[in-house]
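Can you give me the bound-state structure? Components:
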Amino acid sequence: MTGFDFSRLLHFWSQRWPDILGLIVEHIAVVAISLLIAMVVGVGIGMLVWNRPIPRSVVIAAAGVALTIPSLAMLALLIPTFGLGWTPTVIALVMYSLLPIVRNTVVGLREVPPAVMESATGMGMNQFSVLLRIQLPIAWPIILTGVRVAAQLTIGIAAIAAYVAGPGLGSYIFQGLSSLGSVNALNFALTGTLGVVILALLVDALFVTITRYTTSRGLRA
Amino acid sequence: MTGQATGDMAVSYSRQPSVRGRFFTAKRFVTPVLVVLVLGILLLWLSSLQLDSIERRTLNIDYIINRTREHLGLTIVASALVAVLAIPLGIALSRTRSKVVRGIVLGVANVGQATPAVGVIILLAIVWQTGYTTALMALVIYSFLPVLRNTLIGLQQVDESVRESARGMGMTPNQVLLHVELPLAVPVILAGLRTSLVFCVGVATIATFINAGGLGDMIVNGLKLQRYPVLITGAVLVACIALLIDWVAGIAEDLLRPRGT
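Here's the bound-state model for the whole set.
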């Protein structure tokens, strides 16, 4: 039971600003690393399976299973093999990111009109260059939407990873819990939670810009 | 802008509905078979281990059943509360013509989606108290928004011309709601409920941090005492429960969907 005092919170922030900034940078770093890995793996898998019905449904079902597993359980399962800290956090975040990314890649690649692909083949492109130079650019906005969903998911899940000594703002949330009853308990937990929320909203806004500037010029609305 | 991403998030939890008429497909049985297989392997592995006294205190049937009961209790009570509270509120909100109210609700829903569950649960514990009631509150708050949002969106996406034809047939606004709009919105609402159920299993796991029991206890104890068999048993059980609940919800989704949609 702690009362809330806004001036105290401001004081708390000004005192611990470097600390908080460090945690924010860590949080962004772990999410960015995980998303990059997930993007390479996810888009790669998507490109391999998009036109093969059975591998496609197997991959998407497996990624769905991964997403259904609660995050604390997933982290716990990784600890005996990978220890504590960054490694299990990044692996867990990659696993959670795979479903939105793989699924959107598959959907995006399949939504390219057959006529477009036929004209590309007619111009002498082989299947691989059709995939790389025609389908991928057209599917790109959809793939990015998947990455964006994954970003929202992982920013939140990274907060729980602090329990297994993972990096980021989650450590402030847990510090709030462990100092329950002390003056700064609420400040710690509030700073961690608000930081995660603001980060998630900013990253989401950032994705609008990224989508705009990485979409092939002819496809921009 | 956030609407797009979170909209996809809701979809990402629900998988393709099966084709009507082919209810018992092979796919239908993948989840339970997988769960039984995993549990079987876990049991075999555990029986091959020499457990010490600390491990034996938690790895026994009574303890596991009690924790599972707490876990399921939290999940189901919270989901039922959410269904009873959020769906009527969503229907009521969809009746207002005011764009501002809807905008605010959807905006709050999006910010809520970005809020980490662990933050919500720990903040509540700090400002209020630790224990079961707080955990239940956190679960309800956390899964309230997806259901509310899906109810609103489900009712909104009903085609305007469908509504008009219903009115043209002489239906009152209430009849239109009851016989046309709601049945058409049911799949979206059910998808929201399914998402919230799966969320609840996950959040109930971290309820252990604030002393509210559940299978998270096993994970945390296993971690703190460096007893990996305990940790893994807890994690595997939670994962199996999440998968089974998602599976049951998927079946319910197929059965409850009105015919013709």
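A couple of observations. The longest helix of chain B spans residues 61-95. Residues 157 and 185 of chain B are 8 Å apart (CA to CA).
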